[in-house]
């Protein structure tokens, strides 16, 4: 079992199977048997007229390669697992799932996700128009943040809109930018 499966995909699967946590009755439609050799989506869940194709990343090193993997996920020719022979249903949307394995000082243990938030906001704020069109054209719906086996969900457009607010603090110190990112995403509820 890879760390991506252990710390991101499995907690996300449990989140979707628990109606109280996810808010709806979801079915796991597909999950690769072996995470290291997976060529499809990391998780595919289905609800009435809704299919989420989820690309998961567990970040424990350089963020650029993980972000590149998430960004190209909808562009890669990976069909949805379905009964019909279609490539993807019209109800399918792509989602990102991000977990973090950074370890460090006292603050990092408590707020390790703030580093991920800050890096995402930095990336989005540098080219807001691109990310708006990217989400619209490629049907990117949600970003799921997974931390300590709990999951928080945010709409992709909402995080792009928050990045416009974050753009004002881009010339500040790293510590101030992380605090700003935390402040913008303080309403995230991990369930």
Task: Tell me the count of domains.
Answer: 1
Strand content: 15-25%
Order of helices and strands: HHEEEHEHHHEEHH
C-alpha-based Rg, rounded: 16 Å
Shape designation: globular
Coarse structural class: alpha/beta
Q: Which stretches are poorly predicted, pLDDT < 50 over at least 5 residues? A: none
State the strand order across the main sheet: 1-2-3-4-5-6
Mean pLDDT, all residues: 84
Q: Largest sheet at a glance?
A: 6 strands, mixed
Helix content: 40-55%
- N→C terminal distance: 24 Å
How many separate helices?
8
For the secondary structure, the number of strands is 6
Task: Provide structural commentary.
There is one protein chain. The protein has 191 residues and is of the alpha/beta class. The protein has one domain. It has eight helices and six strands. The protein has helices at 3-17, 19-22, 63-72, 106-110, 112-126, 128-137, 156-166, 174-184; strands at 27-30, 43-47, 50-59, 92-100, 140-147, 150-155. Strands 1-2-3-4-5-6 form a six-stranded mixed β-sheet. The longest helix has 15 residues, at 3-17. The chain is globular and about 45 Å long.
């Amino acid at each position: 079992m890879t760390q991506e499966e252990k710390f991101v995909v499995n907690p996300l699967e449990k989140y979707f199977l628990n109606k109280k946590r996810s808010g709806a009755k979801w079915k796991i439609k597909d999950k690769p048997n072996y995470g290291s050799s997976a060529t499809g989506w990391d998780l595919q869940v289905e609800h009435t007229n809704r299919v989420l194709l989820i690309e998961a990343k567990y970040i424990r090193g350089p963020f650029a390669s993980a972000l590149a993997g998430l960004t190209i996920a909808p562009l890669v020719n990976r069909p949805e697992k379905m009964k019909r022979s279609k490539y993807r249903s019209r109800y399918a949307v792509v989602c990102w799932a991000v977990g973090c394995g950074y370890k460090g000082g006292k603050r990092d243990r408590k707020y390790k996700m703030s580093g991920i938030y800050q890096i995402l906001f930095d990336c989005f704020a540098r080219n807001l128009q691109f990310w708006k069109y990217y989400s619209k054209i490629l049907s990117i719906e949600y970003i799921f943040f997974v931390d300590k086996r709990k999951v928080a969900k945010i709409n992709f457009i909402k995080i792009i809109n928050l990045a416009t607010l974050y753009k004002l603090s881009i010339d500040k110190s790293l510590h101030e930018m992380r605090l700003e990112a935390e402040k913008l995403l303080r309403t995230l509820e991990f369930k």
